[in-house]
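User: I'm curious whether this sequence folds into something compact or stays loose and floppy. Could you predict its structure so I can see for myself?
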Amino acid sequence: MALSGLFRKKTVQDILKQVAKNEADGHNALGKHLTTKDLTAFGIAAIVGAGIFSTIGKASADGGPAVIFLFLFTALACSFAAFAYAEFASMVPVSGSAYTYSYVAFGELIAWIIGWALIMEYAVGNITVAISWSDYFTTLLQSGGIHLPQWIQMDYLTASNGFKDATALMQGGKSYDNLGRGLQEAYTAWTTAPTIGSFHFVADLPALFIIILITALVYRGMKESRNASNLMVIVKLCIVLLVIAVGVFYVDTANWDPFAPNGVSGVLKGVSAVFFAYIGFDAISTTAEECKNPQRDLPRGMMWAIIICTILYIAIALVLTGMVRYNELNVGDPLAFVFDKLKLKWMSGIIAVSAVVAMASVLLVFQMGQPRIWMSMSRDGLLPKKFSRVHPKFKTPSFATIVTGFVVAVPALFLNLTMVTDLCSIGTLFAFVLVCAGVLVLQNKPEIPRGKFKTPYINSKFILPVLMIAGLYYAFAFNNKATMAFINNDAQTYDATTIITSLNKEESAKVFNYLESIDVHNKTAETADLEHLLSQYQDDDVKYAEVVKGLPISDSLKYETGFSLFKHKIPMWIFLVVLVGLAVWAFRKNLSLIPLLGLICCLYMMAELSVWNWIYFTIWLLIGLFIYFTYSRKNSKLNFVEKI
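Assistant: Here's the prediction. I'll summarize afterward.
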């Protein structure tokens, strides 16, 4: 087969004919139950979860009250992407989301890549939410006096890594009681877990429980899933509104000064955490075939979900940062924390219950989206036929739903929350980038039939270059130090925790003796905790740099330099190079501004993720390409059409 066969495309007309055929004969047809209200509820169910109940705390601690601008920026980026999704959903109202849209815009190979990325997005997203649900659920049980063994409520990687870090810190003089709560729990889980040889059996069993429960509900039917989702959305919206209504009476406006304590860099520091709070609205597009009027309802459902959730996020952020100082919010359960701090125990209990409900509703939407991606890929021959099997009674993709349960449940027992959160974000952003690019590719092709919704056209020919010039002016005029450090790859000093956890016993002794020799406040007489002794200097950047420079250890343990430092900047350099290419493309082809801005914003947020996420994502894509070239390419239905 010729190389051009890799980019063979499906036409909108053929897709619509196939859907009509499925509906006419009743085979492989999904039940149509959803309206705009249901889609909006699904969107809120997916979005109002980890963002409200967890990540908003860390983002607020980094950015202060000005974190509301980060929520606005992320909402704007998602809205740009939502316009592109809505246009495609109106044009191609079938299950498959970005996978199906890419098949029309770019061809089979790119469609396979995005479909494979979406599998990762939904699977990893489900794992993330299941782990978070487990954390809230076990905390709720503990507040009721039920204490599960630590080794059945924590994943293997967290326990293993936490044990190593805790051991290193205790070797450096820190006592067990002075370890952070997370490290204490990890150390306990690892040391109390049953062992088989050298293997410690640590597994997150509550996460397994909720995945089995939600998978059974999704398998049972869309109507049941819709009803459960709507009920859970009502519950958590009532709780969020109660938090705002009660919290507003405890707001002290003095806590909003300074409004942006760490400047723009502090606000942007939480970009990946805040973006994770918004992912999930695209799962709405996977339900296109189950909508009563997809061309009208899908665009409306997406937009309403983003608008409502953004208003809630901003209101919550202002209330939280008004109730307590921003720097106290770096906790895993910020809502419960602030009310607990203000002695409102009854509110903390209500929030704990609502968090369990909120996480379950997010998991429901994510667990519903992935089987429909697999079903669409199976229909095209890219996956085995079993994945497109629709249950004759429940009208759901039955086999794909069961497989999804296994794919999510097993890793949830063992994987680390931070790792899966970032992987989910990069997979989602990649999908957003391709959907926005797809709209740009198709904008000037008159042969493509258009749906009822079309993104408003604004010519970006001159606007994008002007925006780029403004960005360069800001970088060199107002942020020159950080910009030059980025360009010159200046060495960066490790923080105290990183330095201390990397030392062996002999090096720890040398560092303690040095800190003792420069200790003018006699702190070393009070404690032998190296991390505490070194971190006391971190409030003053100049003093900390001076102390670290004098440490009697190798420079490689004190500074990150050379390629070790540069590799973390590779994603941002990729973004900058692509940005120049996009400016040229926009100038030559008069590209539409809204999807172009969506592409740029999402690509920027990808660049903010660590290089390790890019590496893991690339490995995942390579595995997908292996499957494509060994199975999917020759079994593709378009392959058989070409041969005929």
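Summary: The longest helix spans residues 108-143. The radius of gyration is 26 Å.
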